Amino acid sequence: MKKNYYLGIDIGTFSSRGILLDQQYHLVADTSVPHSMDNPKPGYFEHDALLVWWSDFCTLSRSLLAQSGVDPSEIACVGASALGTDCLPVDENCEPLRPAILYGIDSRASQEAEWLTEHYGSERVRKLFGHPICSGDTATKILWIRNHEPEIFARTYKFLTGSSFLAARLTGRYVIDQFLAKGSFRPLYREDGSINEEECAIFCRPDQIAEALPVNEIIGTVTEKAASETGLSIGTPVIVGTGDSTAEAISVGLVEPGTAFFQYGSSMYYYYCIDRAVSSHVSPNGNGRLNGSKVFTVPGTHCLGDGTNAAGTLTRWVRDLFYAPELAAEAEGGENAYSIMAREAAQVPCGSDGLMMLPYIYGERSPLQDPQASGMLFGLRGSHGRAHINRAALEAVGYSTLQHLMLFRELGLPPKRIITAGGGTKNRTWMQIICDICGMPIQIPENWQCSAFGDAMLAALGAGALKDFTALREALPAGMLLTPNMQAHNLYFSRYPLFCSLYLDNTDKMHALAAQAE
After folding, report:
1. Which residues fall within 8 angstroms of residue 338, CB to CB, at 6 or more apart?
2. How far apart are CA 492 and CA 438, in angstroms?
3. Which residue stretches of 130-235 are H helix?
């Protein structure tokens, strides 16, 4: 039987999605499932890897096959992605030893980061990590487990990230995408992707981390046990897989230098594809910093990349706090609460009638790298209602996007093109706000061009159906293009310095409040 289909599954923060493509890379089936995220303590964010990651994968795999009517033997290759920089210790049977510690949103290892910075010194930190040590560095999470859960550490066969876990459950092989390894797992891997035995000593044994390979390399096939759980055929090829942001970036065409990609999901994650390596950059006016570039998944390119702590989580907070009646009505079959929010936000003037928000309700990663940063509503008056707060939250993420563009320009690397992806792109009011704030056209993909779609396209690349990344880009749909309202841009740009100064002028106060709350 000819193998004509490519399957991709992505595990996200609050939901997972699966997509099945035919040999023309057209959508055959598309399905998703929701799940929760555990927050057992302030700064602690976790997933149960079996009940969330693997269960979702199995559910989606079976659902895609049932929905499409495709025989499992017709699947040519499988690709999977998940939250990029998680830390999951597993035993020899790939059974999790504790809940997975999630990506940069989890800041439990701040003391480990401080100790490492003192141990290495700032100059060596820059050399080993490429940036000041932050909550997005997986090595610090491994060290936290070693320090706080020594019995778990002693039993750990491998420390995995989400995509590594899925690949191992499918094939029995422990691997990681080279891009993830060389970026988020520093200094455990060298620049060539090999394991850095010397630097591992502080964190773990070299044999406790996975082998780094190119994202689209076929690493093995679906085992008998995995086949029985997923509904896939025994022997179906599986690629390495990657982080959700990389998969989504590839899905919308991030393969050329000068292209900036912003993913608006639970957080806002960016990748900026460039043609050369650059060192970390600190803004001379105090408006944040960028980590140094990394060799990108696409051969011959580098990229800058990092993420914020809140985007969709900020709009979710607004929804849960101010739109509870609409959320309850939605549960009874009514209109989606986010649709109502988008409509209300569109009716509020640019600038939210003088209300401005800082989006740091969970601290901040890029570009502040300050886990003690806090959110703020500034300019609040009695005339403001929930719609103003709603729009101010959307504008806050837009200002954060602009802040990153300004840092790119300081490096002498102004983007030529902006592409977007993620669940936030469904909110066209939000995307137009971001377009207006940035003052540049923004390409929005089809709603099914997501991480799971990227996984399926990478599977096609791994299977040899696509010869290279250029062919992959040429096979993608055009999507739609938003253009900025320059009058609105001028207003936003005039207020951008205020957005930056609200943080800079209140940093010490934020830290003092955070210390009192501990």
Report:
1. 315, 319, 426, 427
2. 9
3. 138-148, 150-155, 162-171, 178-184, 197-200, 224-230
In the chain, where the domains are located: 5-246, 253-444+485-518
Phi-psi region of 483 (alpha: psi -120 to 50; beta: other; left: phi over 0): beta
User: What confidence tens digit (pLDDT) does each residue in 325-341 have?
Assistant: 999 999 999 999 999 99
Q: How many CB atoms lie within 10 A of CB 504?
A: 13
Return the biggest CA–CA distance within the chain: 68
Q: Is the distance from CB of 401 to CB of 262 less than 8 angstroms?
A: yes
H or E segment and range at residue 17: strand 15-21
User: Residues 102-132: pLDDT tens digits?
Assistant: 998 899 999 999 999 999 998 898 888 877 8
In 50-63, which positions are buried (b, 16+ CB within 10 angstroms) versus exposed (e)? eebbbbbbbbbbbb
Distances (CA, A) of 382 to 352, 355, 385, 388, 444: 13, 11, 8, 11, 36
Instruction: Report DSSP state, residue 411.
Output: T
Domain boundaries 5-246, CATH class: alpha beta
Give the closest residue to 384 by CA, choosing from 357, 359, 355: 355
CA–CA distance, 490 with 479 (Å, rounded to integer)? 27
Superfamily of domain 253-444+485-518: ATPase, nucleotide binding domain (3.30.420.40)
Say if residue 441 is preceded by a cis peptide, omega within 30 of 0.
Answer: no
Is pLDDT above 70 for 1? Answer: no
Beta-strand relationship, 242-243 and 75-82 = parallel
Specify the pairing of strand 5-11 against strand 294-295. Answer: unpaired
Q: Which amino acid is at 114?
A: E
Q: Are 274 and 411 in contact (CB under 8 A)?
A: no
Peptide bond into 325 cis (omega under 30): no
**pLDDT tens, 52-85?**
999 999 999 999 999 999 999 999 999 999 997 8
232 within 8 A of 71, measured Cβ to Cβ: no
Q: Which amino acid is at 485?
A: N
* Alpha-carbon span 351 to 433, nearest angstrom: 10
What token pair was written down for 291? 């980590």
Beta strand extents in 35-92 (DSSP E only): 46-47, 75-82, 88-90
d(CA 313, CA 424): 11
Contact yes or no for 443/450 (Cβ under 8 A)? no
